[in-house]
Amino acid sequence: MLASKRILLVIAGGIAAYKCLELIRRLRERGAHVRVVMTKAAQQFVTPLSVGALSEDRVYTDLFDLTAEHEIGHIRLSREADLIVVAPATADLLAKMANGLCDDLASNVLLATDKPVLAAPAMNPRMWGHPATRRNVARLVADGIRFVGPNSGAMAERGEFGAGRMAEPMEILAAIEAQFEAAGEGRPLAGRRVVVTAGPTHEPIDPVRYIANRSSGKQGFAIAAALARAGATVTLVAGPVGLADPEGVTVIRVETAREMLAAVEGALPCDVAVMAAAVADWRVASEASEKIKKGPEGTPSLAFVENPDILATVGRHPTLRPKLVIGFAAETENLLANAQAKLAKKGADLIVANDVSPETGIMGGDRNTVRLVEASGVTDWPDMAKDEVAEKLVAVVVERV
Ligand code: C5P
Predict the structure, then answer these.
(1) CA dist 282 to 311, 340, 374, Å?
(2) Are the C-beta atoms of residues 354 and 386 closer than 8 Å to each other?
(3) Which residues line ligand 1 (CB under 6 A)?
(4) pLDDT tens-digit profile of 72-107?
(5) Is 213 a residue of the active site?
(6) How far apart are CA 357 and CA 274, in angstroms?
(7) Distance (Å, rounded) from C-alpha 125 to C-alpha 142?
(8) What is the spatial distance between Cα 136 and Cα 275, in angstroms, rounded to a whole number?
(9) What whole-number distance in Å separates Cα of residue 113 and Cα of residue 120?
(10) pLDDT tens-digit series, residues 367-401
(11) Is CATH 3.40.50.1950 the right assignment for the domain spanning 6-182?
């Protein structure tokens, strides 16, 4: 699938740059043409000589390299590719991309391009989790940039652990293949943008405690994966769950309902929204800045405030309402009446209702029994695997958009 594809690889300055040598080899093995742009910092980690030897092409490093400008020019460089891959995408380069800054060849190419861009972030976990990086990533996702990784694990810095390791070369390769596959014609949702929410949210009480629910995220992840297989460009906004990123899906991991809302809003405009997350209805009114201690005052009591309703915000959006808005209703009683009420209240086109009473085993399980509730009527689906529910729901989406 990669034979004759032209990949422009932008290598920024991070320790993970060494993994790019392997990536280039794997791409070349599959017949892809690889042209490489390196930032100045990248050259501190790997040399243009080794990169050029593997890519079998000259390596571009300098915006003002007259020979290069004469031969090709940075605009052409950015356009003569089928896909631009940024690996490692450092915090600095992501910030530049999010803000349209361009002061070197790499950032100029990224601003000048009209081609799809796939970024493989790599940075210290604190930098990845910093609100500035979260904002930049949300912005880039809204701009249509796709992401692969970062993964969690040990960092180059001793004792540092968390999300920030660059995806492995084979994972980046899979994401590149998925990108070309997604662009492939004939798939029913090619060119459609979809935002999906999944999982629970965690609402902090103090720095070590939180309120959560039993959502596993399995149904939402299955839907995101099925939508991507159908060719859609999918942004999955996921609360804290232990599930791997589905292939070809851009995943934004969040903790709280407010973070989830911000990420979903950042993903608009899009054609379809599937809000499968079990968002906490309430959060603690005032999060304690220090761990609440046992003391003579006795047991603490928590006051709650209501969280924003993400589905309602999207369903009733004055300007950016997606064409199709799908919500979920997880109930333990009065399933149908509650689902019907939700349709109207939240401005959804369709509610997927399921009974999550403990005896059903649906919460956290692999199977689901759902009822599709619309203004025009109710359709009951038999008990099936969550993956099958996802496939059938995608078929419904295909019909409606
Ligand atoms: O009101 P209830 O939580 O039962 O509604 C469920 C539907 O609304 C789900 O689609 C869920 O993802 C969505 N929801 C939301 N934001 C909230 C609460 C629920 O998007 N704060």
Answers:
(1) 15, 22, 27
(2) no
(3) 197, 257, 275-277, 279, 281, 307, 309-311, 327-329, 342
(4) 677 778 877 889 999 999 999 999 999 999 999 999
(5) yes
(6) 22
(7) 22
(8) 23
(9) 18
(10) 889 999 999 999 999 999 999 999 999 999 999 99
(11) yes
List, in order, residues 6 or more apart from 115 with CB less than 8 Å away. 8, 78, 79, 81, 82, 83, 84
- Residue 335: pLDDT band (50, 70, 90) is confident
Q: H-helix or E-strand containing 371?
A: strand 370-374
In the chain, pLDDT over 90 holds for what percent of residues? 76
Are residues 325 and 347 in contact, defined by beta-carbon separation less than 8 angstroms? yes
pLDDT at 67 over 80: no
**Crossing angle of helices 218-229/386-400, nearest 10°?**
50
Tens of pLDDT along 123-168?
Answer: 999 999 999 999 999 999 999 999 999 998 877 777 777 889 999 9
**Mean pLDDT (the chain, rounded):** 92
What CATH number is given for 193-400 in this structure? 3.40.50.10300
Mutate to test the pocket of ligand 1, among 201, 279, 306 (most ligand atoms within 8 A of CB): 279
User: pLDDT tens digits for 204-252?
Assistant: 999 999 999 999 999 999 999 999 999 898 999 999 999 999 988 889 9
Give the pair of three-digit tokens for residue 16. 């993970």
Is residue 154 within 8 A of residue 124, CB to CB? The reply is no
The conformation of residue 168, written as its DSSP 8-state character, comes to: P
Using DSSP bridges, classify how beta strands 272-275 and 324-331 pair: parallel, antiparallel or unpaired.
Answer: parallel
The bridge status of strand 370-374 relative to strand 350-355 is antiparallel
Does 185 have pLDDT greater than 60?
Answer: no
What are the Cα distances from residue 28, in Å, to 22, 175, 290? 10, 16, 53
* Closest Cα to atom 5 of ligand 1: 329
Helix (H, G, I), strand (E, B) or coil at 224: helix
Same fold, 6-182 and 193-400: yes
**What is the distance between the alpha carbons of residues 391 and 379, in angstroms, rounded to a whole number?**
16
Residue 298, token pair as written in the block: 């006795």
Domain ranges of the chain: 6-182, 193-400
